[in-house]
Amino acid sequence: MQILVIEDDPEMAHFVQRVLNEAGHTVEAVHDGETGLTMARSMPVDMLIVDRMLPKKNGLDLVREFRDSGGNAPTLFLSALGDVDHRVEGLQAGGDDYLTKPFAPSELVARVEALGRRGGSETPITTLKVGDLEMNLLARTVVRGEESIDLQPREFRLLEFLMRNAGQVVTRTMLLEKVWDYHFDPQTNVIDVHISRLRSKIDKDFDRPLLHTVRGAGYRLQA
Fold this sequence. Notes:
This protein is an alpha/beta fold. It folds into two domains: 118 residues, Response regulator (Rossmann fold), CATH 3.40.50.2300; 95 residues, Arc Repressor Mutant, subunit A (Orthogonal Bundle), CATH 1.10.10. It contains eight helices and eleven strands. Helix 1 links the parallel strand 1 and strand 2.
């Protein structure tokens, strides 16, 4: 399975990553709630493992917002907060299971695999929609209203990332890392060029713009 671990303690994140890698899973780890939510929405993920106490956005809010935006990947909370009330809060926020720290590696693997079996019948997301703009991820088509929009592969990937994060401000750094796979800013205008081309295709001939520039921050796709 493709698993996203959202844990602010680097040692704990590395431990979880190593245990699950050894069990045959592919694991990516991030260390704050805002980045975790963005990645959960934008990357194909089979499961989330979320610490409750996270910087920038706590684990409960992260999972609530992930569920509210249509995310259905099974979610396991990891937390040192282990009394009944805390476990109930985690489940009510949208978690599927709750594991208290410290824990045995064998129990972590067992719970992850049990959640994986439970989540295997869930229907994957194949369509993204923002206002009257709709993207079919299987057919690789984009339609706004009744008009088909022809996109180049990079434009499609850019729009998909924006649609998965609809309503959120997406920074240039996020776009460079997730759409172009750059982990630094090479001082290029590649983003500006592609945003301009994308805007001309999805907004130019329509009454209401969807793609907005947020000065000094980035871009936001919003109906």
